Amino acid sequence: MKIAITGCSGFVGENLLKYLKGFAVTELNRQQLNNLTAEQLNYNEAIIHLAGKAHDLKKTSNPDEYYQVNYELTKKLYDAFLKSDAKRFVFISSVKAAADSVENILTEEHQPNPQTDYGKSKLMAEQYIQAQDLPKGKSYYILRPCMIHGPGNKGNLNLLYKFVQKGIPYPLAAFENKRSFLSIENLCFVIKNLLENEVASGVYNVADDEALSTNKVVEILAQSSNKKAKLCKIPSGLIKGIAKIGDVFKLPLNSERLQKLTQSYVVSNEKVKSALAVSFPISTIEGLTITAKSFKSIPQPQVPFK
Q1: In sequence order, what are the residues at sequence separation of 6 or more whose Cβ sits closer than 8 angstroms to the Cβ of residue 93?
Q2: Based on CB atoms within 10 Å of each CB, which residue in 78, 152, 167, 278 is the most buried?
Q3: Contacts of 287 (CB under 8 A, 6+ apart)
Q4: Strand 202-206 and strand 147-149: pairing?
Q5: Structure pTM?
C-alpha cells in the first residue's frame, strides 16, 4: 500500500514508520504542505496526518500558531485529499478536542467543549473534515488519542521516572485519580488496521484498556528498575498553592501540569475496538513497563522540585 504521511519526524511518526514496514511511504514536510496540490497526493491510497502544534504547558506559544498549524494546514491537506485519488484520510486529533476535564468516562458522544487554543484548533479541524461532502469510495478517520507514551517519549512519565531513580518520594500521592494512557504500539496498531480494513468514517477515541491512578504508575516505574515506590501524601491544598506560584514564575510545576498529573481522565476505547473487531496487542501495564525500561537509555530531565 502506498501512503503519504505528515509529521514523520515526531514521536508518533518515527514509531509509525517502523510499524508500517512493507508500506510504500511518502513523507510530506511542512514546506510541501504549504504548497500542496491534489496531484501530489495521487497514487497514494491513504493519507495520515500526524503533523501539528503540540500542547504547550508552559504557555509560551502564540495562540495563532495552533490555528495556523492544527486547523489551516489540516484544511489544506484535506481539501487536496478530497480532490486526489487517495481513498483514506487519517487525522490524529486529541481527546483535548473534546474536553479538558472528564467527570465520568469520555466517549465519542460527549459534546465537545475544549478550553485551550490547542483543543479548539484540533476541534476546528475535526469539524471541517466532518462538514465536507465525502466522495463515494473515500473515508476519513479522526483519531482522538489520550496521553501517548513509549520508548523515546520524554514527557511527564519521564519526570516521574526521575523521581523514582533519585529515591525522591512522589509528593502527589494524596490525590486520588484514574487516568487513561495509550501505548504507542496500540496507536500504531489502530492506524494500521484502519488502513487495511473497511471501517465507517467517523471520530474514534484511542486509549489502552485500563485506566490507572498516578500512584499505580509510580509503582510501575519503580518496579521496572527493581525499586520500591515511595509515595508521600503531602496535603493537596499545599501542593495546589505551590503550583499557583509556578504559574506566576513559570516553574516546571504549574497548575496545568499538576492537573495533568493528578486529575481523573478516563477515556473509552470501545467504539474503535468494536469497529475493528480486535483486541489491542499490549495491556496498559505492559505498555507502561516497556516505556519505563526505555528511560534507562535516554538523558533524564531536571527534577522540577526537591
Answers
A1: 122, 123, 125, 126, 142, 143, 144, 203
A2: 78
A3: 149, 150, 181, 183, 185, 186, 208
A4: unpaired
A5: 0.89
Picking from 24, 5, 30, 27, the residue whose alpha carbon sits closest to that of residue 191 is 5
Task: State mean pLDDT over 236-258.
Answer: 90
Q: Residue 54 — pLDDT band, cuts 50, 70, 90?
A: confident
**What does the block give as the cell for 9?**
519526524
| C-alpha cell belonging to residue 215 | 500512584
List, in sequence order, every residue forming a beta bridge with 27; answer none if it has no partner.
Answer: 5
Split at pLDDT 50, 70, 90, the class of 303 is very low
Count CB atoms within 10 A of the CB of residue 174: 16
Model confidence pLDDT, tens digit, residues 203-238: 999 999 999 999 999 999 999 888 889 999 999 999
Chain mean position to CA 91: 12
Interior angle at CA 122, CA 273 and CA 140, nearest 5: 45
Ramachandran region of residue 205, left (φ > 0), alpha (ψ -120 to 50) or beta?
beta
